[in-house]
Amino acid sequence: MIKFHPDPELLSEYVQGGLSPINSIMIAAHCDMCERCEKIAHQQTLIHAEKFESDIGNLSEFKENASSDRKFDEMLESILNLPADKRALKRAQGLSASVELDGRRFILPKTLRKFIPSTGNWTSMVGRLWQAPVDIGNDSIAANLIYIGQGGGIPEHSHRGIETTLVLKGTFEDGINQYQAGDYVYMDSNDTHTPVCHSPQGCLLFTVLDQPLHFTSGVARYTNPFSHIFFR
Ligand SMILES: [Zn+2]
């Protein structure tokens, strides 16, 4: 069962469109995998839609006394009749739903599928790690698919900025908790951890960083330029 969810405030911001594009992507991808948060987001959407409708109602009363009735009606009409972007919908449906690594296929949550065409090749790294950079159209954010094979891991590190991870497949632990598919893991400058994977099928993660990691122990400490591996 999924144990780690985004904060309720974050979900509320999400449905109101108040989050940065990358935070929205992470929350939407989590909601694809998490029935609980999907329900909360849906309920919040209904609440905000009701509020929007009552706001529109108030505006209608106001406009009865306004001189530009016709213009207002036309504007409202054009907003309400905006056609859905059917071509974009078709494109999204036609996209492949999975990524492949070493002959294995991993189905991605719906929200992440649109990034499959902008996902780079897998690179094999030390520690049974694989990394594939995902171009999300923002140069100051590093987004990666990371696969950790059984017995593999990432050296102990702290965070200069914010690291958000969505577990897509398998499980891993980091000395603080154990995480499984669907878990939404938020780490910031207060957190130091050492992710390792013990599950036989390995684990697939989608991670987003706004600053390079800072390695804090072992050999990796002396090779902190290594931190840029995840930040390119
Ligand atoms: Zn959730």
From TrEMBL:
Pfam families linked to this entry: Cupin_7
What are the residue boundaries of the ChrR-like cupin domain, all occurrences included? 142-209
Q: What Gene3D superfamilies does its record include?
A: Anti-sigma factor, zinc-finger domain, Jelly Rolls
Q: Which InterPro entries match?
A: Anti-sigma_ChrR, Anti_sigma_zinc_sf, ChrR-like_cupin_dom, RmlC-like_jellyroll, RmlC_Cupin_sf
SUPFAM superfamilies per UniProt = RmlC-like cupins (SSF51182)
Instruction: Report the NCBIfam families cross-referenced here.
Output: anti_sig_ChrR
Which protein, by its recorded name, is this?
Anti-sigma factor
